[in-house]
Amino acid sequence: MAESQENSSKIRMLPHDDEAERGVLGALLLNSEVWDTVSSSLEASDFYSPFNSNIFQAISDIMEREGLKSFDGLILVDYLKRKNLLDKCGGVGYIAQLTNIQVVTSNISRYVEIVQDASKRRRLFSVSTSLEKDVFDPSVNIDDSLDQSSKILTDALLKGIKEKSFEYSLGRISQFTFEEITKKLEGTAEIDRIETGFDVLDKYTNGGFAKEEYIIIGARPSIGKTAFALSMMYNMMRNNKKIAFFSLEMPAKSIAMRLFAIDSKVELAKIIKAQFIGDEFERIMDSCGRLYDYSDNMYIVDVPNISLTELRAKARILKKEKNIDCIVIDYIGLISVPSSYASQKKFEQVSMISLALKQLARELKVPVVVLCQVGRESEEQAPILSNLRDSGSIEQDADVVCFLHRKKNLTEEEKQRNLKDSQGRANIQVTQFIVAKNRNGETGTFKIGYNGPLTYYNDVDQSSEFIDYEQKVPAKK
Fold it and tell me: In sequence order, what E strands does 12-74 have?
């Protein structure tokens, strides 16, 4: 009896719904205007029937690659004949049946949901079957298996919200790109960049970090990489952008204290010791309320020595559940590698991690900003690309590489000048911001100001050594 049940489970059909699949195709053939609704949620692999899958792919080719605005059964059959695909789509008779079935085009969204649900179930079955085999195969690296399975499952979760990809002809992509340029000229284009809140940096990057860009920000220890990252993220969240911050070096409580200092303009040391004067505690209370208002704009992942597999899995979940706009990682040297890479040299491990993070930016279509240490040899001289610690292929993978630099050994005159400006304002240290690589823009060096007590960076007048560090970023609308 048990053997009979086991055999029965092995031959059972995978989840699918033939009527819903035919309903989707029939609705498309009756009214091609619903194509946008369908194509944003389904692709050919979501159809169980090979006939239905091939027909959907043919419709996709007609609409996306050949640039037609509409189609019907006759256009579809003509296309399939020209491409010698008619037999793979069930022939003229099968296509005719699709146009004759009773469907209500207004119900197309429901048909799509049914097909999509069955497709996700088949993907889940495939992953679970693969994992079951890997569990009992000692030659398989389980971390790699889990990472690949996580990606497949996340892709299934992201169905319907991620952009679809196509193989574009040069003519098609040229037309699409020209339309985007025209929209930007008219001011109607979707904003595809994340402003950093630093005016000069935004100019260098043509308006901020772009989707899918992989950005490295390097500095030697104690220069303030984390401070710069938090200052940038503070600017971003006040501009209604959502950031995922992977804090591998600093606990979430410390991050919150720094944000209090940035927002309230109360020195970090006073916040840590809870020793305030005047209205400073009231400013902290006000700051707490303001930061609470931005709860949905920053998500802090506080996991020391996080594995690359876990980092990517959490990033995918945050993209799916919170629709994050940017990922910031502090820092690359603290990401642990899969066990299969443990015996490799450090620069090979970093190269593997770097490539994986670049791929993550492309996959999730968000900028990924990664902090990186540079070698001690750059303490007195401005760092260059080769100074990136254990750099591997970081400088090759990155779209943008930036460095923060201040001299370590200052003259007495420089110390006095950096201590306070002529108006007695708090510590403002002029710091070089070096854009060493910029795949789609200019390279160069400019100044930003570092306020040590507030652990905060802000713009500086390029002709001046000191700045007024009051916030310039507009309040949340």
Answer: none
Cα–Cα dist 182/177, whole Å: 9
Per-residue confidence at 474, pLDDT binned at 50, 70, 90?
very low
Asked if residues 404 and 228 have their Cβ atoms less than 8 Å apart, the reply is yes
Separation CA 375–CA 379 (nearest Å): 8
Matching residue, tokens 């443990």: 342
Residue 362 DSSP symbol: H
Q: Which residues pair with 326 in a beta bridge?
A: 243
In degrees, rounded to 5, the angle at the alpha carbon of residue 299 between the alpha carbons of residues 293 and 304 is: 140
Which residues touch 126 (CB under 8 Å, ≥6 apart)? 152
Assign 444 to helix, strand or coil: strand
DSSP E strands: which ranges in 239-353? 243-247, 298-301, 326-330
**Beta strand residue intervals within 202-303, DSSP E:** 209-210, 214-219, 243-247, 298-301
CATH 1.10.150.20 fits 2-157, yes or no: no
What angle, rounded to 10 degrees, do the helices at 252-264 and 280-293 form?
110
Euclidean distance between CA atoms 244 and 232, whole angstroms: 13
DSSP class of residue 427 equals P
What is the pairing mode between strands 429-438 and 214-219? unpaired
For the stretch 99-141, pLDDT in tens is: 777 777 677 888 888 988 888 888 888 878 877 787 787 787 7
Give yes or no for a contact between 425 and 466, defined as CB atoms under 8 angstroms apart.
yes
Q: What percent of the chain has a predicted confidence (pLDDT) above 70?
A: 77
CATH level 2 (architecture), domain 193-459: 3-Layer(aba) Sandwich (3.40)
Provide the 10 A C-beta neighbour count for residue 204: 21
Helix-helix angle 308-322:142-157, to 10 degrees: 10
Distance of CA 107 to the CA centre of its chain: 33
Q: Which of 195-199, 220-224, 341-345, 448-452 has the lowest mean pLDDT?
A: 341-345
pLDDT digits (tens, 9 = 90+) for 56-106: 888 888 876 555 666 778 888 888 888 888 888 888 888 888 877 777 767
Give CA separation, 421 vs 179, 413, 464, in Å: 50, 12, 11
Domain spans in the chain, listed from the N-terminal domain onward: 2-157, 193-459
